[in-house]
């Protein structure tokens, strides 16, 4: 099967995003750069999750605010997407909200699950993942209008980090049950 130039660009972005996400998990859990104590209690773990969940939530808030601002200042869009066709800019901003919402839900779940279930000296993964989320969203927003290859690293940096956190936690918990 031969890939188009766009598919090759997306594949390259996917590979970069995956390798970065894998590095976040491996290095964050092994090096513990935030120096989390091995005996953190549940309350401390939840505080870490809550603090770092604010990063994805902030990006979602900004995404919603951008569309609200656009609608307020654009007569064709002020009535909202349910009542109008929507300008191209409104559709683009709505697509950014939708993707950011999906990524935020996944990230928030991943951060909470990881914070509670994984060994506390592995918790550095959470703040590193949150910072990567912020970088990923910026890259995604900047690259969106240029097409799929230009936004692939931004998308995958958010998605693969959260997905690997969830899958790693599942594997860890299953291993704890069978060993």
Automatic annotation (TrEMBL):
<keyword id="KW-0472">Membrane</keyword>
<dbReference type="GO" id="GO:0045055">
    <property type="term" value="P:regulated exocytosis"/>
</dbReference>
<feature type="transmembrane region" description="Helical">
    <location>
        <begin position="120"/>
        <end position="140"/>
    </location>
</feature>
<keyword id="KW-0812">Transmembrane</keyword>
<dbReference type="InterPro" id="IPR023352">
    <property type="entry name" value="MAPEG-like_dom_sf"/>
</dbReference>
<dbReference type="Pfam" id="PF01124">
    <property type="entry name" value="MAPEG"/>
</dbReference>
<feature type="transmembrane region" description="Helical">
    <location>
        <begin position="152"/>
        <end position="175"/>
    </location>
</feature>
<feature type="transmembrane region" description="Helical">
    <location>
        <begin position="9"/>
        <end position="28"/>
    </location>
</feature>
<feature type="transmembrane region" description="Helical">
    <location>
        <begin position="48"/>
        <end position="68"/>
    </location>
</feature>
<keyword id="KW-1133">Transmembrane helix</keyword>
<protein>
    <submittedName>
        <fullName>MAPEG family protein</fullName>
    </submittedName>
</protein>
<dbReference type="GO" id="GO:0005765">
    <property type="term" value="C:lysosomal membrane"/>
</dbReference>
<dbReference type="InterPro" id="IPR001129">
    <property type="entry name" value="Membr-assoc_MAPEG"/>
</dbReference>
